[in-house]
Amino acid sequence: MKTSTSSALIAVTAIAFFCIGRSSKPGAAASDESSAPGPRPSSSNSSTASLRPQQPGAKPSSKVSNSLERIPVERARQLTSQERLGLIEKGALVYDSGKQADLLCGVIATLTKDDIGQAVGLLAAAQDRGNFCSQAVWDAIWTQWGRVDPEGVLKVFNDKPVGKSRADDRHLMAGWWETDPAGALAWAQEPKQTQHDAVAASLALTNSAGGDPKKLEQIMLGMPAGDARLKECLRDYLDLASMTPESAATPAQTYDQLPAGLRDTAWPVILQRMSYTDPDGAAAWLSQHATDAVYDPQASFQVVQRMTSQNPKAALELAVSLPQSDDTVNLTGFAISRWASSDRNAAVAWLEAQPADSVLAKQYLPGLKGASGRN
Predict the structure, then answer these.
(1) Alpha-carbon distance 120 to 53, whole Å?
(2) Residue 300 near residue 322, CB atoms below 8 Å
(3) What is the pLDDT of residues 335-368, one digit of tens each?
(4) CB contact at 8 A, 257 and 242
(5) Average pLDDT for residues 45-70, to the nearest whole number?
(6) Can you tell me the mean pLDDT for 100-112?
(7) How far apart are CA 277 and CA 271, in angstroms?
(8) Cα dihedral value 325, 330, 335, 340, nearest 10
(9) Crossing angle of helices 312-321/326-352, nearest 10°?
(10) How far is CA 177 from its chain centroid?
(11) Torsion of CA 187, 193, 195, 201, to 10 degrees
C-alpha cells in the first residue's frame, strides 16, 4: 500500500481533476467508442446548421466598441445582453484560436438562458463564413449552457446529435453540477435512453461517488440491465480504479475483481481500454476471453486493427483464432488485406502454408496471386 504524503496528494489531485469532467483536446474521440484515441469530431467542425438557435434573436447592439480586447468576467457581467452578444459576434471572427478563446471565454461565462442560444447562432454564422471557432470556445459554451439551462442544451443535443461529442456532454454536465448538483444528480439517477443523456448522467453519478470506485460500483449495481448509463460509468470506473493508490489496478485486474453482474457490460469496455493502454496485453486477454458468452466482435476488431500496423502476421493469427462467425470472417479478411497491402508476398506465403482445405486460402489466394503475378 502506498502511504507517502506525496503519493496521496498526487492521487487526490488526479481524482479531483477527473471528477469535474475531463475534456479532450481538439481532436479527441467520439461516438459510443469515443473514449478511444484518435480524432474526435470537434464541435467546431460539425455542421453549423445543427448549432443554430431555433428562433434567432434580435441583432446585437452597435454600442460595443469596434476594438477587440479581453473582457474579464466581472466586467462582462456589467454589460447588457446585446453588448455581450456584440462581443461574441466580433470575437467569433478572430482567426487565431488562442486569441479567440481569450477574447470570448470570459464573456461566454456570463451568458444567460435567454441569450445563449443567440450566441451559439452567432458562432455558427462565423463558421458558415469559413472561420471555425476554437474548441475552447465550444467547451465554454456547453459548460455555460449547462449552468443556465442544462435540460435545454440536452434537448438540442438529442434533437440534433450530429457533431456533438462525449466531451461536449461532459462539459454541459460539469456546468450543471457546478450550479445545481442536487438537481443534476436527481436527473442522472433516472434511466436514460439516449447516448447524450447517458454520458452526461455518468459524470454526475461519478461525481456523486466522490472518487471512490467502490461507491461507483454500488451505483452501477443498482442500475437495470441494459441501462445506457452503465457502459459510460464503467469507463469512469476504470479511470478511478487505476488512479486510487490503495487499489490501483490494470483493466484486466479490474475485470477480474468486478461483481458478476457488471462483467457482461464491462467486457467490451475492458478490451477497448486495453487495446490502447496495453496492445500486447489486449491480444493476450482477447485470446483468453474469446470464448466468453459476451464476446464482442466489434471490440475485437479494434484490437486486430491496431495490431495490423505493427505486426500484421500476429494480427492475422489472432483473428483466425477467434470464434468463427460472419464478423470473424470479415475480421480475418481485413487482417489479410492489411498484411497484403504492406507485404503481399509474405501474406501469400502464409496462406499457402495453410492446410489444403483452408477456407481462407481458397477465398483469398486466387486474388492475391493474380494481383501479384505469382503462379
Answers:
(1) 7
(2) yes
(3) 999 999 999 999 999 999 988 788 888 888 888 8
(4) no
(5) 47
(6) 94
(7) 10
(8) 130
(9) 130
(10) 19
(11) 20
CB 237 within 8 A of CB 213: yes
Of 142, 43, 139, 133, give the one whose Cα is nearest residue 94: 133
Taking only Cα atoms into account, the Rg of the chain, rounded to an integer number of angstroms, comes to 25
At residue 181, the 3 state secondary structure works out as helix
- The rounded distance, in Å, linking the Cα atoms of 247 and 266 is 18
Dihedral sign of CA atoms 206, 30, 265, 256 in order? negative
Higher pLDDT residue, 133 or 66?
A: 133
Q: Which of 9-23, 180-194, 348-362 has the lowest mean pLDDT?
A: 9-23
Single-letter residue type at 186: A
- CA-to-CA distance for 274 and 281, rounded, in angstroms? 7
Q: Which three cell numbers stand for residue 301?
A: 476488431
CA 69 to mean position of chain CA atoms:
34
Helices 279-289/312-321 angle, 10° precision: 20
Q: At what angle do helices 297-310 and 312-321 cross, to 10 degrees?
A: 160
Enter the DSSP assignment of 80. -
| Closest to 131 measured CA to CA, from 164, 165, 91, 180 | 91
Q: Where are the alpha helices (DSSP H) in the chain?
A: 5-19, 73-77, 81-91, 97-108, 116-128, 135-148, 150-159, 166-179, 181-188, 195-208, 213-221, 228-243, 251-257, 260-277, 279-289, 297-310, 312-321, 326-352, 359-372
Is residue 336 within 8 A of residue 316, CB to CB? The reply is yes
pLDDT of the residue at 373: 53
Neighbours of 230 (CB within 10 A): 24
- With contact defined as beta carbons under 8 Å apart, do 351 and 365 qualify? yes
The SS3 of residue 6 is helix
Nearest to 78 by CA among 98, 66, 92, 64: 64
Q: Whole-prediction pTM value?
A: 0.76
Which residue is associated with the grid cell 487495446?
275
Say if CB 197 and CB 47 are below 8 A apart: no
Does residue 286 carry a pLDDT above 60?
Answer: yes
Distance between CA atoms of residues 123 and 125, nearest Å: 5
Measure CA of the first residue to CA of the last residue in the chain; give whole Å. 63
